[in-house]
Amino acid sequence: MNEEHKGNEALERNEEESRKGWMQKVDNLSKALGMEESDKTIFEIRDTDDPNVKELVKLRGEWNADRPMFAYHDHDPKELYVFLGADTFGALVKALKEANEENFNLKLEKAIIRHLPEDFEDVRLVVMDRIKDLIAKKAKDGKPLQLNLDEIVSEIKRKHPSLFINLKELLGEGNAES
């Protein structure tokens, strides 16, 4: 076998492995999104003579703004892109925000309950005011805000103990008379 033939075979194997890489990503993403095989739309992004112009070539599937469409670049198949219609993207962002808010609320609820509030809503209001203060303070210095909800609730408990149940007092350990 001559050297040129060996080089071509190696190049073909490399291209095949690259294609398997992007196809595996497409398969994983579409499976996570609950897409059927027939729902997959795949494009190849090709360079043109003009470096400011790319060509988008549909390889399979149908153009559908209601579901994700996948594209890879012919020079770097490891880079995979996902196209979404604006309405679909907006719905995705809304769902992520709602999930993030629900997650935050559950963590906040857990942190408050752990400290035995007298009135959950009163404590929640005080904690949310403290969080707003922290956000305003961080906005001034431009640094990202890392919230430790348990720490914030502990701080509120120290500053406002009347908002929380005192277990020692409740069990009679704090003021036992003999």
Task: Describe the protein's architecture and organization.
The protein is 54% helix and 12% strand. It has 178 residues and is of the alpha+beta class. It has two domains: 3-87, no CATH class; 106-170, no CATH class. The protein has a four-stranded mixed sheet, covered by helices on one side. A hairpin with a 6-residue loop joins strand 1 and strand 2. The longest helix has 30 residues, at 3-32. The protein is elongated. The protein starts with a helix and ends in an 8-residue tail after the last helix. The model has no long low-confidence stretch (mean pLDDT 85).
Summarize the structure.
By secondary structure, the protein is α+β, with helices and mostly antiparallel strands. Helices cover 54% and strands 12% of the residues.
Descriptive keywords:
four-stranded mixed sheet; 12% strand; 4 strands; alpha+beta; single chain
List the helices and strands and how they pair.
Layout: H1 3-32, E1 42-47, E2 54-60, E3 69-73, E4 80-83, H2 86-114, H3 120-141, H4 149-159, H5 167-170
